[in-house]
Amino acid sequence: MNETRPEMHPTISTFARHDGCLHVGGVPLTRLADRVGQTPFFVYDRSLLNRRIQALRTHLPDEVALHYAIKANPMPAVVQHLAGLVDGFDVASGLELKTALDTPMPAEHIGFAGPGKSVEELAQAVAADVVIEVESLGEIGRIAELARRQRLRPRIAIRVNPDFELKGAGMRMGGGPRQFGIDAEQVPQAMIVVAHSDLEFIGFHIFAGSQNLRSDILQQVQEQTIDLAIALSQHASAPVRYLNIGGGFGIPYFTSDTPLDVHSVGKNLGRLIRERLRPALPEARVIMELGRYVVGEAGLYVTRIIDRKVSRGQIFLVTDGGLHHQLAASGNFGQLIRRNYPVAIGNRMDQPEKEKVSIVGCLCTPLDLLADREYLPTAEVGDLIVVFQSGAYGLTASPVNFLSHPLPPEILV
Ligand SMILES: *Cc1c(COP(=O)(O)O)cnc(C)c1O
Predict the structure, then answer these.
(1) What are 225-268's pLDDT values in tens digits?
(2) What is the residue with the minimal CA distance to atom 2 of ligand 1?
């Protein structure tokens, strides 16, 4: 029984602690729980959002516009806060579009991407005068028809399904046959269709994948993305003024993950822009769109232990939360291997990790596992369990109606 205990996940130590209690936004977690008035809840830390954007600004080239992909966390207060820090938003639905338009962000700095935009959503986007990132020839036709009816000339960027893949990415969204974008080989034809409609072609959107922690792979993808945009621009009827090169920056979910080296990615991107992009496309505004990297580490899911039991020698801490709020932490959001998210007992941060416990939710399914046999301090009913790395694809990517529990509150501190 001489198992080695894993080291503490680095994100846990970015939060302050006093008298054994984790602090978020300068407030003890126990007091925050009282302030919210109920558990479970999500809390997002404004100062960590600020710090993250600051770090991105430091490492990315000055001329890269930084967009926030709202689908990672669409909480209106978070989006409002980020409106003052980033250069634009990426939206993927009519409601995300509304959330973005409710902020002071100018419409021309909002991009609307996503397959299967409904005619109603497209009509809203045309009326709002945001950039529409088109995903098919059919969609170009629908937008042209709406533009005629509204007597407007929407700005169009063509989302390209690249002819390369992002290797080692958590989620691939380009290369091979995909529902996203127009295949690179069909883009010249799509540009002819756009040029013959009353639509304003402004450039390209090329997004190859998500959750990448390897700077060498991201650098290679950015190089291929820029080369592809330059090659395609030779068929364009107007200068390329807009180039959304995607993002794909990952965050370390597990102790074995190494955080992304953003400095080297930024340095290499600066070189690519100077040496390759500028000579060919002098007018192109380069945009990076990031979701998870901006908000993921700034959010916690907080849930309370309501039962403690031992089943055939294994200790279970049963909480009032679960996968209906934080599906990804249960390992059921597309992960191939289930590993534990970083977790802690928020009111026992000063106590030794004495026992191996499994943390489960309150749903009637064995899938509802928030941590599997993790070393933690001895916990009791009433203690607060914290699941870190919960700021992105938490509540927004969870089956909230499953078992009909109420929605958890979300706060920004
Ligand atoms: C989901 C998505 C993003 C954000 O991805 P993250 O992994 O959260 O950074 C960016 N762009 C597009 C087109 C997306 O679909």
Answers:
(1) 999 999 999 999 899 999 999 999 999 999 889 999 999 999 99
(2) 69
Residue 11 per-residue DSSP state: T
Alpha carbon distance 306, 120 (integer Å): 45
| Cis amide leading into 252 (omega within 30) | no
Ligand 1 neighbourhood includes 291 CB (under 6 angstroms)? yes
Checking DSSP bridges between strand 299-311 and strand 41-44, what pairing results, if any? antiparallel
Could you tell which of 53, 68, 71, 393 is best to mutate to test the pocket of ligand 1, judged by most ligand atoms within 8 Å of the CB? 71
Picking from 157, 93, 102, the residue whose alpha carbon sits closest to that of residue 125 is: 93
Q: Report residue 411 as tokens.
A: 């706060």
DSSP annotation of 366: T
- How far, in Å, from the CA of 395 to the mean position of ligand 1? 16
Q: Is 292 in the pocket of ligand 1 (CB under 6 A)?
A: yes
User: Which domains, from first to last, does the chain contain?
Assistant: 10-45+297-412 (2.40.37.10), 74-290 (3.20.20.10)
What tokens appear for 392 in the block? Answer: 């992105």
- Whether the model pTM is above 0.85: yes
Report phi then psi at 379, rounded to 5: -110, 155
Which residue stretches of 273-402 are H helix? Answer: 278-280, 292-295
